[in-house]
Fold these 3 entries.
Entry 1:
Amino acid sequence: MEPRLSFVTLAVADVGRARAFYEGLGLVAARPSNPSVAFFQLSQGLVLALFGAQDLAQDAGRPVGAPGAVALAHNVRSEAEVLALLEQAAALGGQVTRPAGWAPWGVFRGYFADPDGHAWEIAYNPQVRWDEDGGVWLD
Amino acid sequence: MEPRLSFVTLAVADVGRARAFYEGLGLVAARPSNPSVAFFQLSQGLVLALFGAQDLAQDAGRPVGAPGAVALAHNVRSEAEVLALLEQAAALGGQVTRPAGWAPWGVFRGYFADPDGHAWEIAYNPQVRWDEDGGVWLD
């Protein structure tokens, strides 16, 4: 396996509702999106997808499970951006499960759950290097 | 929210066991990894992390849930690579939940669950454009 993630697909109860939440946060659905699946092209060259839970279970050949076992982190450039994005997510129907604060390992972060319960960490992490596409590098 | 994913963290029962599985698949743990957390730098500028389930629940302020609500897709360049990687995952203790085959939407794919149950789709998708870093672009 080469070190690469190509798509990250979230199981959702209602693709339209989930799509509206992420559009409200500022993401723009890509052209191949349709009522059954929504795609968001991410700047580093991977895709965030929203797919009906039953459709995903059928495709994967397994039950979908309960959200939270995977946490998606979105890094931002300041503490103020962490606070603003958590507030925006809450206003759109997300639930803040961890208010913003400094972790013992030196990251200012908070978490929200999207309307389907998927866990997002919004983080200001001074320890990682950024590139011009928004990518992060550990060293 | 800018269109970016920075870290994808998988809740695991045993960081050492999970790390060994992904190292067996060919990933190389990054220098900041330790017994409590493992990091894999991905080529597009994001990080795959393995973190103890209780640690993640505590950090996120919420229960971890059951794996499967998020599917991680790893695209490869041929049908043969899909078959080989599913076979390798199974040999390392993964469970193939969907044997490889063509989906109605024109993707040759199969799924496996890692030792903690996280869902991976291995896919040959002739419809996306690749860049030199392994990134995929919808158009």
Entry 2:
Amino acid sequence: MSLERIAESFARQGMMRTLDARIDAVAPGLVSLSAPITASVGQQHGYGHAALAFAVGDSAAGYAALSVMEPGREVLTVEMKINLVAPAAGLRLHAHGEVVKPGRRLVVVRARVEAEDAEGARRDVALLQGTMIPVGDPA
Amino acid sequence: MSLERIAESFARQGMMRTLDARIDAVAPGLVSLSAPITASVGQQHGYGHAALAFAVGDSAAGYAALSVMEPGREVLTVEMKINLVAPAAGLRLHAHGEVVKPGRRLVVVRARVEAEDAEGARRDVALLQGTMIPVGDPA
Amino acid sequence: MSLERIAESFARQGMMRTLDARIDAVAPGLVSLSAPITASVGQQHGYGHAALAFAVGDSAAGYAALSVMEPGREVLTVEMKINLVAPAAGLRLHAHGEVVKPGRRLVVVRARVEAEDAEGARRDVALLQGTMIPVGDPA
Amino acid sequence: MSLERIAESFARQGMMRTLDARIDAVAPGLVSLSAPITASVGQQHGYGHAALAFAVGDSAAGYAALSVMEPGREVLTVEMKINLVAPAAGLRLHAHGEVVKPGRRLVVVRARVEAEDAEGARRDVALLQGTMIPVGDPA
């Protein structure tokens, strides 16, 4: 695993900059990201848009997969399922991605997305389960 | 169905403005949206981020569901599955959402997302299948 | 595509025999299966079990993928999502699988499952979307 | 929660009898089932069919949801996603279902399916995530 590799890939994602997302924690097979819930990423009721929860959850899961790849490889999302379990209300979304089944051809991942309110309380807002595929040649 | 209702809800979605998305077509049970593929919504290889394909696909599907709701009701995404079938390369993503099973308690939806290149050629980049739930009281 | 290859693989599936399933149609990228709805594959209300709809839908999709593989290869299900849209009431389930995106590494598939009643009328009961992976060496 | 209610519902599922499945553990929001891996529920390579893993995983998840319902209510599967992470090799599949988000209108569930070999060793073969809906009137 390489922190630099994850940070460098993250920095190249325009979408992560647009969402003002940041990496909060990296460990082998585990990556946490977060992003603010603001009007510019809201849905029609003022909560964070489902696509915001997807964006941080999918990215946390993808970087968790990248954290267990050989140097030189990258990962792409093959498919992702998201269950939205509560409105994304509050100040910030926190996504925790994990590798549940590493594989040479495919990596199965999960992520949990929490919303943090002004008092620092957190509640689950989304659960993701999906598949990542390694691309590129090992260095 | 009410065009005004869909346009009004869409205008309140900060995420749709941030993505510079627009509604291209509305018919009962069918809604098409599109959004530009730019560096600010890209992933690490310069293609559109998976979250961009999700955002336009999920929204097209959600507005397709809204198009068959009684006045006064709105819809929320319960769950959504996305299969990414090709990189989101080109200038613009087009999402076509449709209701496949309307119901009083739940609405099953699908969406297809295409990427359009500089020559106007289109190829599928994502397929979505999910569930919407009506919320709010009929007017 | 080879009818023999599909028929031979199907005959080796104990589950398909247990469900009394049969292949009804094969074309490149399209396979239809059916199986009777009986008490021995029912759920607690007497309808066909969700697992029956899954079994015929997943198999129809898998054989659709196999129909576009090179000789000597087989396919396994990587992941599958099923939306159950109506109770599996009636006499027989019909599953129609199709390849929506063939690929060298992965094949994206869909299936639609219908229930047929005593009068021959059919209604959709399930929609599936998933991913198949080729295994084995080309002959 | 009522053990009798779960046992009684389970006994009415012809599919569970056909698969020779049994309930192994019940606690509020948690249900474990198991079923033998035999030739009659196999796929073309002799492993347990994906539909077997789905059947026990979906049922464990559904009964986990039922375990937190009011008396008189039952649950139906709205949608379920399964990721197959290893072949269902061995003697027996064990499915562990859990409620991850109980709700009045919908219940979000997960299940993990393990295969047990002749030495008693277990490995994960499938992960499920889905939605159950309560039906029927409270008693």
Entry 3:
Amino acid sequence: MSGPNYISRRSRLLRTFKNAGIDALLISGESNVRYLTGFTGDSSWLYLSKTAKVVLSDSRYTTQIANECSGLDVDIRDARRPMSVAAADVVKKAKARRLGFEADHLTVTQHSALHARIESAELVSTSGLTERLREIKDKWELTQIREAIYQAERGIGVVRSSLRPDQTERDIRYTLEAAMRSFGATGPGFEPIVGVGPTGALPHAHAGDLLVSESPMLLIDWGAETRSGYRSDLTRVFVTGRVTKQMRTVYETVLKAQQKAIAAIKPGATCKAVDAMARKVIANAGFDKFFGHGLGHGFGLDIHESVRMSPISEQVLEPGMVVTVEPGIYLPGKFGVRIEDDILVTNTGHEVLTSVPREFDDAVVEFLA
Amino acid sequence: MSGPNYISRRSRLLRTFKNAGIDALLISGESNVRYLTGFTGDSSWLYLSKTAKVVLSDSRYTTQIANECSGLDVDIRDARRPMSVAAADVVKKAKARRLGFEADHLTVTQHSALHARIESAELVSTSGLTERLREIKDKWELTQIREAIYQAERGIGVVRSSLRPDQTERDIRYTLEAAMRSFGATGPGFEPIVGVGPTGALPHAHAGDLLVSESPMLLIDWGAETRSGYRSDLTRVFVTGRVTKQMRTVYETVLKAQQKAIAAIKPGATCKAVDAMARKVIANAGFDKFFGHGLGHGFGLDIHESVRMSPISEQVLEPGMVVTVEPGIYLPGKFGVRIEDDILVTNTGHEVLTSVPREFDDAVVEFLA
């Protein structure tokens, strides 16, 4: 498998310029710059037009850009020359007339500095031009995402097989991160959430000092990051103590909601329609008050990318998109259940990329009494 | 030692409103929100005025905010209600007239959404109001930074004592991160830079597959993050092979530059004057072309904070500031030397908080021949 084709990515982006009403674009979003150039550092922008392709960076990155980015000009500034000046210089030299900027990434301060320094071109707000390209993963990206899933799934296997009642949430987080690295990950794809009992009811809690033995439920939301920067994102709940009827009901409801939503994933489906499939199952079971977040999201170089699956998302699924499906029910002070898998939209429907067992019986972990 | 006094922090921020020409402020910078409230999640904003203190968040964080933030009202929105609507509602209810926003954190898109939804108040651009408070660390913060330094220094001790010629940069990075965690860190304060030989000449390289044995020089730039979110930031170079005259000259030049700069740190000194002390030593030795970045930066909840020590920084040092001093000389294709310590500005001068040995002879690591 050959690597990413940055030239083709930049060509596709250039073809969006006419509709956006621009003849050049200043790309400042870090993952967008990486997607379009291969550069893995930060604080660097890409100026892109038909006639000029320039990376704006500083001397920390001179050699790294030479190694990582081919076919691009480079403007290296020193500590005395702000980014806005470097940008104004390239705009003037390249004779841009209508310069797009990324409104979702540029801060108000950065925009003001550009506005003050760029006189020869009009600044035009754009949103999501590169992000929309990134929604559709190419073949190489899919191999990277599959690798990130492999690393995450091997990692959780180690956690599960080494689980003990006397481990803390933090112990489990560190075991998981080390295990994913032993399978080739550079690290976690995001800070893993490891929540015992009530902590699992906080959808974004930090792993702390609760012991596995302190509650019968354990929630883990984790993923890996590959060397190429691609991520995976899963959630599983483990039952580590006496099963109650409520636990089983909540778990089965979430799983049913997730499976209904996954079944609805195909090209042409709207994100809000898929979200509604899950939300309806949870509402019918009387738990709608306890599911406040969106159903899922795209991921890749970032852990949260376009598309978003939520009740207000009009986005339409297309082949090549990869999304999480992760409904949850959170009972404050008790426990939370979320089940999350990674789904590829195919030409005819979908493929579930993740394969950690998800039935209730699979979730039960037995310790010596 | 009691914990942070959030009420006092918010009071000090409120006292800056008059000068800034605002009667309320919308704080969207994640670390600023944490500094002012104790909240450790993301995607949440703080509305602050004399009469109203409201955290704007979503249902993922309902319980976490209740646990972490006392003395604040909370507005929890669901997936159907964008942040800009929640903000407009609180502005209207609290009757703000001139609403400040953080221009360094708000994106152009977020600003446009607020502008479209908020009719009753004028939006006023502000910059660095909370960041300026954060420049001066209080007693509790200093204990946290000292703890982060302890974790980092114990960690590098483990790395040094276990260093082998057959380790890769990546092996060393993972050993370091695990060691810092064993001393209480939640993880690294930033992605550790571990660079063998030529990789050390890239000031911000990723740890890769080079072996220690492949070059006589090894650069490590690392720090820890405490459970409370505070960080440390150090750099050391190890000499792992045959010493050349050039290596020694470059090392001694960087060290001399660093020591001259540290000696100049005291209340009232300008950042550019301190930067100039180091830059002059490096220029006099003929290496000015090979030192392109600023001399150092403040740190705390973020790894890069105000103040910035660079040739163009007019900022003035004050007691309670904590900054890095990290000059470097980078010889492309050969090696880089950077020596970085963490310095507290005291009432009468400064205190070097870090204590890993930094003389050239200390840097030499002997392996069995």
